[in-house]
Automatic annotation (TrEMBL):
It comes from the Bacteria. It comes from Chitinophaga chungangae. Residues 1-19 form the signal peptide. Residues 339-482 form the Thioredoxin domain. The lineage of its organism: Bacteria, Pseudomonadati, Bacteroidota, Chitinophagia, Chitinophagales. This is TlpA family protein disulfide reductase. It holds the Pfam family Redoxin. Keywords: Cytochrome c-type biogenesis, Disulfide bond, Redox-active center, Signal. It is found in: Cell envelope.
Amino acid sequence: MLKSLSTLALILYAFSSFAQPQLKIDSVTVTGQYDHYDHQTGDQFNVTVYDWAGSHQKKYSAPIDPSGKFTIKFPFPVAGDIYLDWGRIYEANVAFPGETIRLYADLAEYKGTKAPVSTRFEGANANVHTDYMRYYYDVMRTAGDSLYSLRNRLSSGLEYRDSAVTVLQRKLRKLDDYARKQNLDKRSVQIIQAYLRFSTAGAMTQFIYKLTGSSSEISPAYLSSIDSIHMMAQSAEFFPGDYMMALRDKKNYAYTLANKAKTKEIDSVWYSLLKNDFEKELAYTWTTNQHLAASNSLGNNELQAFEDKVKDPYLRSEINARNNELLKLAQNDALLKNTRLITTIPELATAEELMAHIASQFKGKVVYMDIWGTWCAPCRDQMQYSPALKQRLKGKDVVFVYLANNSPETAWKTAIKQLMITGDNVVHYNLPKAQQSMIEKKYLYRGFPTYILIDKEGKFITNQAPRPSDPDAVEKAVAGLL
C-alpha cells in the first residue's frame, strides 16, 4: 500500500504543471496507396477521430481509386489519436493539426495475425507515426489490459485506484525499456506516455459505473486521483479520445449525484466535477451539440448564451457551422419534394387499429417501417445505410414508412432533409403524442430504433425486422413478402 500511495504522491505533483488543450481551426490530410488492392465499386478509405465539439467518434470517408490510391482531408484541432481505415487495416495511430500523413501499406500483410512489415509513413512526423505503429503492434496489441480485468475482481474504489496506478507505473517502465532498445523518438515517447496515462484515467472513470451499482461510495480522493493523472498527461499536449471519454463518464456519474440530491440540474452537477474553465467550456459545447444533433437549430438568444459561456474559437466555429447547416436545411423545402409528411390520422381506440389504418394506406406494397426519433443517435446512425437500401429495392413494391417519437415539427422536417430519408416511396408520420405512445407500447422492440414489416395485404409480420445496416437480410425478408 505504501508503495502505491507514494507513487500516487508523485502523480499528484501534476496539479502544478497543467497544459490545457489549445484547439486550432485546422485539418489533417491522409494520402497514400495500397498494394495488393482488389478494387470494389464504392470502396472508401475511412478515418475515425474524436469529435471535440460532440464528444463521440466521427468517421470521414473518401474513395479509393482502382489503383489503390486515396486522399482524405478532415478537421483536426489538436494532437490526438486517429484510426486509419478501421475494418480494413485497423491501424491505430496519432495525428497533428496541419500535417499531411503519407501512408503506404500492403493489404496482403493485414490478412493474418502478424504485424505488417512493409507499412511505412512519410511526411514531417513520419518517425512518430512509425514509432507509434511499432509500439502498438509490439506491446499494446499483445499485452492485454489488466486494468479492465482488475475491475472484475475489485470492489473498493481506492483499492482499484492504487492497483491502476501500479499498473500504469509498470507500463511506463516497460515503455522506457522499449524506447531504449528501439531508439524511439523523444516526442514519440512523450505521446505514448500521455496515451498510457489517459487510458488509465479512462479505466478509472469506467470503474465508477461499478461503484455506483454497489454500496461503495466514490470518495473525493478517487476523483482527485483521476484529475491528477489527467493533469500529468496533459503536459505532453497530446489529447486522445480517452480524455474526452473520461469527461463524458463524469457526466454519467453526475446523473447518480443528481438523483441522490433529487435535482434535475444534471449539467450543473457535472460542471462542478470539472476542474478548469476549458473543460467547462467543452462540457457546455457538448450539451449544445446534443441539441443540434437532434436537428434542433439555435435561436439568436440561444446562440448568444452559448457564446457568452464558450470563448474557444474552434468550439465556437464548429457550433456556428453546425447551426448554420440546420438553418439552411430548414429553409429548403424543395428537399422534401415527393415525400409525404403526415401529422394526423383518425382517433382510434387501440394500437392495432392505428397500425391497421396506417397499413391500409399502402395495400399492394410491402411496408418497411422504422420507429425512430430525431434525438435518437442509433436511429440516425442506421439511416446512413438507408439510401443504399432504397436503391437495392428500387422498382419493387416496397414503401418506407417512418414513425417519429417526440420530435418537434421543425426538427423533424430538418432531420428528414439532413438524413436524406426522402423519395416518392417514403412516407413520414409525426403523430400526436398519445397515438405514437399507444403504438410504441404495443410494437416497440427493445427500444429505438424498431423495424417492422407489414405484408402487401396489410398484415403485421414482425417488429424484429433486419436493420438497414444489414441490407442483404432486409432484401431477403422483403423478397419473401413480395
